[in-house]
Amino acid sequence: MFWRGVWGYLPAQIVQGVVGFLTIVVFTRLLSPEDFGRYALAFSVTSLAHTVSFSWLEAAMAWRPISPACTAPPSPSSPSLRPSPPSPSGFCP
What we know:
Radius of gyration: 23 Å
Mean pLDDT: 78
Oligomer: single chain
Helix content: 55-70%
Distance between the termini: 23 Å
Order of helices and strands: HHH
Strand content: under 5%
């Protein structure tokens, strides 16, 4: 199971790396050194702002506890094996 996930994820990472490298090659040929410096600075600031803005959101989603109502086994009176009703917030993770 692990290796199937690795082989499914690895090509996407390789493509991303190759595209990123080719982008640098193309930009260094098309832009002057001054313009490329501006681009690199703007890209760095944007990346940093994205990290600061959204890392807390990703951490909060990973931390979100699972409601006990979502993990409760089906009641004996229930003829089907459908999950229990959603939590009071209206949904189960």
